[in-house]
């Protein structure tokens, strides 16, 4: 028979909020089994886990937000799609600074290059019961979102890989404007064959930077050669391979806008191997303004992307959500700016 509260709710014309006990009864399992699923414990059969997760989602179950305890430091999970560049270090620094100021620890993990966490990673995160989850260049599908939401674990995305749903909190930068300002600078120096080597074509910020590059050409009335648009991988080898191919052409570009500073380093190496001087024979603009760009020769002209500020903003947003506070803006794009150094010059060709 239904309990008294369920009967009262039915008489009032409302559905009783789901509880662990009601989920367990409907699933035909014990209350501890439902609790194990909620806590990310591995010792539940996959079929049983799937059935319980489906019921949690269907009944819109939400665990009561846990109050911080004095036992141990509260944690946030920070997950990167990949963790092998100076770009990642700047994000980590921003997260660590903001988390330390709030007395929160950080658990760092890598997703092996994929833009969506595998279920094994999510289970491990649920078992840790963090205050929240920060995802970098990654996102969750609807089922994964609900797994976090049902445990009252908020998440925030930094530099989203794709276009997330409107209610997903995200922090990024104005990538379109970054691409626009980099290309405007090169066109203003007299370059008319400007190539772009962006990041992966399936990543939102890569496409936005290329859109800015195209808009600068349209604005200046300079014809665009589609063969000068390349999509790399944000890493040195991608810049080197595409740079070598572009600069070996008989109609080579006189300037290259690289979609990351690491790709710009690859372009510089390709130019060196082909006997091209920077900036006399080739101008190069990077993206990110990593600390190393001031120390290479020539010092790199680049677009400053405020990576530490992006990471710090996302971390503070996540901690506010974990405390049950409302946030005024769920989508924040920080401004980018061009930093002119020694790798660009007027084209006299």
Automatic annotation (TrEMBL):
It comes from the Bacteria. This is LacI family DNA-binding transcriptional regulator. Keywords: DNA-binding, Transcription, Transcription regulation. Residues 18-72 form the HTH lacI-type domain. One of its GO terms (molecular function) is transcription cis-regulatory region binding. PROSITE patterns: HTH_LACI_2. InterPro entries: HTH_LacI, LacI/GalR-like_sensor, Lambda_DNA-bd_dom_sf, Peripla_BP_I. Gene3D superfamilies: 3.40.50.2300, lambda repressor-like DNA-binding domains. SMART domains: HTH_LACI (SM00354).
